[in-house]
Amino acid sequence: MHRTQIITRFLFILLLGIGTWMASQRPLWNDEYYSLISSTLGTSYKAMVMGHISEGNNSPLFYILQKAQCDLFFYHPPQEWVAGHWGGVHVFDQFFLRIQSVVFMSAALSALFYYFGRRNSWLLGAYALAVAMTSALLWFHWTEARPYAGWFALSLFQILLLLNILEAPSSQNKKYLVYLIFVHWLLALTVTVSIVQIVAAVVVLWMFYRPRFFWYVPMALIPLGICCFYYIHAPYYNFFFVDGPMALINANISKDRLFIIFASALVLIFQCRGKNCKAYLEIKYLAFFLLMLGAFGLVLLKLKCGQVEGQHGFQISSRYFLPLLPAGIVGTVLFSVYLVRAYPSRVWRAMAIVILVGFLVFRIHRMIY
């Protein structure tokens, strides 16, 4: 067994242990209570599948899994929760209700380490893990009994599969395409706005890979149909902004990560003059990244135009743009590697490493203080 595989398995177990401990120590908050009592226990499987969930996001995957977990283990919440008196510390309930999110997040971080560890070295895998772990939103959603850890994990799986398809020999692409189709279906069943990232991935595949036409039906048309079905059946709520659009984006992709990605991209474009730029994996990923930024920017614009006067309804939160978090993490690592290897000079490489480590230390400092 390859060393990276062994480390990845131990890493998954370690992350599972860390997540389980954090989940059991942190009291639930209002949204988690509401999702459990109203959307999960108070809704039948049939109603879930039909999109009859009384939340802004009525895609059923998370709620079906949580309800199945509760039914399988004969779980009943404390009576005071059912009566509407939310609060208190219930260690087992906190662990039990959040285990789905803990598993999703642990699997996602392990997959991130494995991809870069296998592609380069375990040291790069450790760097990728460090970049991810210095993301504040990741720590919040890691132990939250809500759909967002699953959305993060599936978004990261989608990105890693997309990279594998774009750089793997054609003989292996069929396997990765099948996996990507499966992930797209799960994304469509998780959050309706995942239509954005599904379209972005399909456009990039059309630009740089051109799969046969029949692949687009299960990979794009069916998941888009699922998203549209749940969007049509979603309850209507008013929204308002507290944070500005850039603050919502920067909560997922910090300014220093944007700087690394775009500065490295400029170096790459400069080196590409007179060459076939499409041959570079970084260029292909840059296209996907820009499509994601642009598409979620349009979502922001739509929400901004439709916001109500005053603070009535639901606050627009950074979690509505969560796929930008894994997109920024992968982009930072991918372009960090390119920046270090852009020129053979030892001085250049030393300077690039010092700058990248400096940014990482800065992120750690920001998280702690």
Can you describe this structure in just a few lines?
With 369 residues, the protein is mainly alpha-helical. Helix content is 71%, strand content 1%.
Describe the structure.
This protein is an all-alpha fold and 369 residues long. The protein is built from 17 helices and 2 strands. The protein has helices at 3-25, 30-40, 45-49, 61-72, 79-82, 91-119, 122-133, 136-142, 148-167, 170-188, 195-208, 216-232, 245-250, 255-271, 281-306, 324-341, 346-368; strands spanning 239-240, 314-315. It has a two-stranded parallel sheet. The longest helix has 29 residues, at 91-119.
SSE blueprint:
Elements: H1 3-25, H2 30-40, H3 45-49, H4 61-72, H5 79-82, H6 91-119, H7 122-133, H8 136-142, H9 148-167, H10 170-188, H11 195-208, H12 216-232, E1 239-240, H13 245-250, H14 255-271, H15 281-306, E2 314-315, H16 324-341, H17 346-368
Parallel strand pairs: 1-2
Helix pairs in contact: 1-6, 2-4, 6-7, 6-9, 7-16, 9-10, 9-11, 9-16, 10-12, 11-12, 11-15, 14-16, 15-16, 16-17
Class derived from helix and strand content: mainly alpha
| Uncertain spans | none
Let me know the average pLDDT.
90
Which sheet architecture does the biggest sheet show? 2 strands, parallel
Distance between the termini: 41 Å
| Element-level helix/strand string | HHHHHHHHHHHHEHHHEHH
Spatial ordering of strands, largest sheet: 1-2
Percent strand equals: under 5%
Determine Rg (CA atoms, Å).
21 Å
Q: Helix count?
A: 17
Total number of beta strands: 2
Shape: globular
- The helix content, as a percent range, equals over 70%
Keywords:
369 residues; mainly alpha; single chain
